[in-house]
Amino acid sequence: MTGSTGNAAPLSKPVIKLVRQAVLDFVLIEPGDRIAVGLSGGKDSLMLAAALGELSRHGDLDFEMQPIHLDQNQPGFDRDGFNAALDRLGLGCEVIDEDTHSVVQSKLEPGQIPCALCSRMRRGILNEFCVANGFNKLALGHHLDDAVETFFLNLFYGRRLEPLKPATPTEDGAVTTIRPLILVEERKIEAWVDEHNVPTVPCPVCDAFPELKRRDLKELLSEFAKMQPDMHASVRTALYES
């Protein structure tokens, strides 16, 4: 494995068990895989890198990983905070410098939220990097709450029963995006960050343009959780374990 120097912020046994379960149940990692781990600086991607580092050090999964970060030249990005997070976790990171921010701004219609366009451009650049550098997998930090919200967004607005997939290959099959945290609840990631004092870096653009449907749905799901405290575990079983 490359890109990691130690076990600076270990994951709890229940969390690493869920990560391992996702990896094995959905065949997210296979012998000889070279995995680029997308690091934004947020809590999810930082835990993802820490989790894959622990799995690699365990020795029973034969794969190579490299954290990568796309510098989109966004005004206000906390570069010092990002570097502090890398130092805290003992991570090395390959930085890709692409001014997608200016491109996105030039293409926006009046009143349009930039997040969807930014996301598509970012994913395309990361996939191209993987192909050019011999990585066959791209790991992203989507967690169980993302999966639950996506399922209900597809149900309410897309008129389809479609959960977030643990793995999605590109059209040509050259790169497969994997989501090893897909069985892990967001609250467990938040607890890990707090326990180990891991500095996190928010997106300076996304925080200014909250995705209204997802935000409203998150609030609705929090009300469901008051009625059924085990809601996330129940939905996890229904979507991914049944």
Helix content: 40-55%
Q: What is the H-and-E element order?
A: HEHEHEHHEHEEHHH
Distance between the termini: 33 Å
Low-confidence stretches: none
If strands are numbered along the chain, what order do they take across the biggest sheet?
3-2-1-4-6-5
Can you count the helices?
A: 9
Structural class: alpha/beta
Total beta strand runs: 6
Residue share in β-strands: 5-15%
Radius of gyration using CA atoms only: 18 Å
Mean pLDDT over the residues: 91
Overall 3D geometry? globular
For the largest beta-sheet, the strand count, sense and barrel status come to:
6 strands, mixed
What can you see in these coordinates?
This protein has 242 residues and is an alpha/beta fold. Helix content is 48%, strand content 12%. It is built from 9 helices and 6 strands, in the order αβαβαβααβαββααα. The chain has helices at residues 13-25, 43-58, 79-89, 100-107, 115-132, 144-156, 186-196, 212-227, 231-241; strands at residues 33-38, 63-71, 94-97, 137-139, 167-169, 176-178. The protein has a 6-stranded mixed β-sheet with strand order 3-2-1-4-6-5, sandwiched between helices. α2 links the parallel β1 and β2 (63-71). The protein starts with 12 loop residues before the first helix and ends with a helix. The mean pLDDT is 91.
